[in-house]
Design a protein that fits this description.
about 150 residues; alpha+beta; three-stranded antiparallel beta sheet; 4 helices; disordered N terminus
Length: about 150
């Protein structure tokens, strides 16, 4: 069916979607978080490398080159991933969720430790992350899907 100009930018009806994001086809987790960049930058300035080393991996710190906006976006992604797992930060350590760069520079999530264990238990094996930031706000959206049809509670 050809696409009409009026259809551009519209989403198909939910029933028309296929794949793991459709209800009943596998587990789904979604998380979103927004960070106030000036407040986060102030926190980084006050706590310095102790905070950076506690929250971020060496790769994340190197990738961001000290940019408060980029670090805040990764901080938001960690929170969003923990929400997608259904837990929040606490049961999942900050460094258990790592935001790396894919082949073309797009962000990718890597799970370690407890975050990885929970994801495996819940059947979540595919992750997508989107980051955005400006001078005032950083945001992240994380979507996790799985192929397993049975979700096991931890």
């Amino acid at each position: 069916m050809p696409t009409r100009r009026s259809d551009v930018g519209r989403f198909p009806p939910l029933g028309a979607l296929r794949g793991p994001a459709v209800a009943g086809s596998g587990p789904l987790g979604i998380g979103v978080d927004v960070v106030d960049v000036p407040r986060f930058a102030d926190l980084l300035a006050r706590r310095g490398s102790a905070l950076g080393d506690r929250v971020f991996t060496a790769e994340e710190l190197a990738t961001c080159g000290g940019s408060p906006q980029r670090l805040a976006a990764r901080f938001a992604a960690k929170e969003a991933a923990a929400k997608a797992l259904g837990l929040g930060i606490g049961p999942v350590a900050w460094r258990d969720v790592e935001v790396g760069a894919g082949d073309r520079g797009a962000p990718v999530l890597r799970l370690h430790g407890e975050a990885r264990r929970v994801a495996e238990t819940r059947g979540l094996d595919r992750w997508a992350v989107s980051l955005s930031h400006d001078a005032a706000r950083a945001a992240a959206l994380v979507v996790a899907t799985g192929t397993c049809r049975t979700v096991l509670e931890p």
